[in-house]
Amino acid sequence: MRLTTKGRYAVTAMLDLAFHSQTRPVTLTDIATRQTISLSYLEQLFARLRKAGMVKGVRGPGGGYKLSRDADDINIAEIIVAVDEQVDSTKCGGKGNCQNNQHCLTHDLWMGLSDQIRDYLSGISLGSLLERELVNEVAKRQDKDLEQVIEISNRTEKMTA
Hints:
- This protein has 161 residues and is mostly helical.
- The chain has 7 helices and 2 strands.
- Strands 1-2 form a two-stranded antiparallel sheet.
């Protein structure tokens, strides 16, 4: 099974959003900085996530993005599907045309693995991840790192002005 950066980044960005949007909307720039993901790539992912009804934009000063549903109601598998990522361990994409347009010897084995992975990811919500101590520790560390980057940037601007 191969999960590309598209799926991993989408899940990471959604978890960051779930953590930080509890108090206010979150900008994609903040997510991009904290998670070291390209802003233009995040914009593409969030267009798909918005279309799937998982996030909503908030306009105006202090705007950004928020989850459109409760974090407990968004599971990891649906985030991956929303960005056109597949959870598939077969080489045929699940079509069953692996060997001369027919099933290969191990097709059912890999289909079963794909089903197990999909079920596992469907059983994990953003809300359940937010309850994990390590997730909270990492998010808080990233916030401190972002504050330091902003502080250094402000100092540099003052020195060059």
